[in-house]
Predict the structure of NAD-dependent protein deacylase.
Amino acid sequence: MSKKNQNIVILTGAGISAESGIQTFRASDGLWHDHRIEDVATPEGFAANPSLVHNFYNERRKQLHDPSVQPNPAHHALARLEREHDGNVLLVTQNVDNLHERAGSKNLIHMHGELNKVRCENSDNAFTWLDNLGTDTVCECCGVSGNLRPHIVWFGEMPFAMDEIQHTLDQCDLFISIGTSGQVYPAAGFAQHAKIQGAKTVELNLDPTMANDTFNESIHGPASVVVPEFVERILSGEH
Ligand code: APR
């Protein structure tokens, strides 16, 4: 039995989806080695060349519909943790893919947005969008073209649901960081926040990260192996 009423917050990054076939950002074959962040992941880049930005996200959205891209055992283990743990489990992901929800996670925040949504810049309404998006796409809510943008948090923009995340970190007993290099704030500060207010902090990542001394325990290995093992330990009451 896992420890009753223990509040768990989990932060995931691109590493958890790497074994599902989705590129990470900062590896030598990562997305930021082939693309300039300024061009495809900033409001200024979008204003300068919206077609380039749409094409970048269209490609990535299309990849989510590839039958070979499926949730891996790490995504499934986190969904199991939410179902079986006798306490609150909040999953905060920096990922814009849909693999956590496809694995069955429900208490989930996409703090950096979602590839499968678009947003109208006039009304601020976000809605599900599975097709390609272009500068001539007509917005469902205002009937005008050129208003839609990917529902992605770009550099220089505020991530979603920060109040809810901060509040849950304040009550957190166990904080787990999975598959993130810890280089992008505010997410990179969550472990320190949780630790200062008394939580145990654990990192699961393929390689050691620079944030190592923020964690009470660091476990290195592929997410598909180390995450299911760690979830088993929580559910057996070890943490
Ligand atoms: N299992 C576990 N960890 C892995 C695996 C794996 N199979 N493969 C890679 N990793 C680790 C890498 O060692 C690296 O530390 O995942 C981490 C991925 O780091 P980044 O590429 O920097 O991705 P992430 O931390 O999610 O980036 C944060 O930056 O560019 C922005 O908005 C974007 O959400 C993204 C944010």
